[in-house]
Each structure stands twice: as C-alpha cells, then as structure tokens.
Amino acid sequence: MHAPSLPDRTLEAYADVAGPDRLERLRSLAEALSDRRILHVNSTATGGGVAELLRSIVPVCNDLGIDTDWLVMDATDDFFAVTKAIHNGLQGDGPPLTEGMKATYRSVTERNAAELEGEYDLVVIHDPQPLGMLDRLAEAMPDAAIVWRCHVDLTDPLEEYRAFVAEYASRVDHAIFSRTAYAGDVGALTTSVVYPSIDPVAEKNRSLDETAEAAERDRLDPLSFDRPLVAQISRFDPWKDQFGTLEAYRRASDTVPDLQLALVGAMAGDDPEGMAVYERVAEEAVDDQNVHVLTDLPDATVNVLQRRSDVVVQKSLREGFGLVVSEALWKRTPVVGSNVGGIPLQIVDGENGYLVDPNDASSAGDRIVSLLENERRRTRFGANGRESVRERFLLPRQLADLLEVLVGTLGVDSDG
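-> structure tokens emitted (416 positions)
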C-alpha cells in the first residue's frame, strides 16, 4: 500500500461555485467528523475517475479539519487481470470466474490489508478491487466502520460475479452507488446514492488564459481548430466503444467532409486491457488522416480539447457515471451520449446535448451533424450544459453528500 502525492486544495477555492450555504454545511459536517480518522482505499492513483475524485476530495477534507488518508493498493498484473474480469462481469460480460481467480484476488487483497498501519474510525473502499480486505480490516480495526463506494454500472451483472462481490458487500456497514438502479441485489444492508462530480479548480477543468491555451493547442498539432472537430475522451476500454464513435464519425463526415475526430484516452494503472484496445483503435483509424488517436495527454491539453471541440461524444455501452460528460458540459460543449448508466443523469436530451441508443452509431452520427450545422443550437446547449453542471455535478455538492453518509454511518451529530 502506498500514499499518492496530493495537490493543495482549500475549501475557499470553491467559493465562487458553491455558494455560502453549501460551504457552511460542509464546515458543519466537518466539525462533526473532526475527531475521527478516515481512510480511502482504491487500486490506482492514475488514469481513472476514482483517482481523480480522490485527488481532490482528500485534500479538501484535510483542509476542513477531517483527518483523511488515501492509500493505493500494490498489486501484480495477475491481480489486475482478475479485477478487470470482475469489473467486466459486473457490467455484464466476462470469462468464467474460476477458483484460481478467486485465490489470486484473496491473496493480494489480504496481503495489502496486512500492510495497513494505524487506527481509523471509518474506511471507504472504492470499487471491487479492495473489497477482499474486509476480513483483515475487521481483525486489525474491529471498531472501524466500513463503507463500500461502488462506481461500477451494476444494472445487468453476470450472476457468478454478482454473487462473488455480494459475499463481501453483505458485510460492509454501508454502500454508496452512483445511481439507484445500481444498488440491486449485491447484499449491502443499507445504501445511499451519491452522484460523482468534477473538480472545477483542477487543471482539467479550470479556466485558462490565452497564453496557456495557446501553448496547449500546440500539443494537439496537427488538429485544426479552424475545421469542425468532434472528440471523445475516455479510457481505452471496450465499454467506451471507440469503434462505435468511429462509425458515428464516418456517417457524419459524409455530410461534413472536412470533419475531424479526436479519440483521446489515458491508461489506467489497474486496467491491463488499455494498451490492447488503444492499438486496435489506432489500427482501425490509421488510414484516415482526419482521425487522431491520442493517449496520456496532460490535463490542461484535455481541457483545451474539450473547450475547442464543436461536439463531444460519449458512446459508451456501459457507464458507471461518465464524468467526461460533465467535464465537456462545464466547458459549454454539447455532448452526444449513450442512454446508459450515469450519462442520462447529465444530458437532458434536446437541452444540453442528445441521448442515443448505445448500439445506434447511425443516430449518433446524425445528432453530431445536427449540432455541427447549427451554431446557435450548439451555443444554447453549451450554456445550458454549463448551468446544469454548476447546479448538480461540482465537487462541493458531492463532498457534502459524501460527508452526510459518513456522519450517518458513524452515528455522530451534525448541525442541521
């Protein structure tokens, strides 16, 4: 187990987007937790939405006076192959779950749990990877409350994977999901729904001055911002369906012949499929000079790409939440997204973007064209998107919801 480096974050940095009432509520909740120690555990420090969330949430909690740590598992490639199979199985597709896979999972999670030092009042376990730590945690910290924060789309899991995870989830004190539909039958006795959020002051989402933006544009050469541009920013993962986005782009380019497509993604440290998917996507796109397949761009460069794209696409087949949708909407860029997982929580069809069936690349292409051909609609959708994210999907709101759950799980009093 190791502790990632963290940026500086203060609650006051969010004063312009949170409003005084929410900031005061956060301070009140923090006061209730001021004598408690909180630990977050996940499986990677880079390349995924969970890591991005923790990188902001943990330092803000400490600024509020809540003693909060974040530890990342140390694990082997074999373990991550198993946990990716579990992730896929929970989303409805995966190989048979063997006894050998279970043994690998238990061995690595128990070894990591044995490395924990110190005492905590509450441990938040993120996603299925660290769930196997439960027995060792119960031995080492018998009085600690355990919260499982599941970020995965659980609407249609394979039964053997659901049952395997339920063995552990049934023993946590509380479980948090990103949608009510995900709670399902995974055994958790008490549950809450907390929508994820973006961090508006992070490098990926903050406003950029002209000089900084120009420098980041240079990194995106040979993309041209003088021609129509569509982008999808996602991990290279089968569920993100970059191939479907390519199909939608090709349909749109029949009408908009100078159209460009940027397929951009990071490599998550706990996802062994990422490089293989990236290579397949790059091979599929290699003969089209208007398609640019890019990986591991700096956050500031992604920021500029989301701002300067005419349309952002998120054509996922399954999606726990899909914060890249809110990232684009925050930057006033309309989004064409699949009607799956957390995407329809963020896109209001016909107001800040369009929703399409996840298997309907043709309709996605038509929606892209309708936005590219109507600048006034793009502008209106962009303004609506900015406000919808301000109201619902910025970090202070998520943090308040999370702290409410932690206060309730620990049974401590908070004002209001």
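The chain is about 45% helix and 15% strand.
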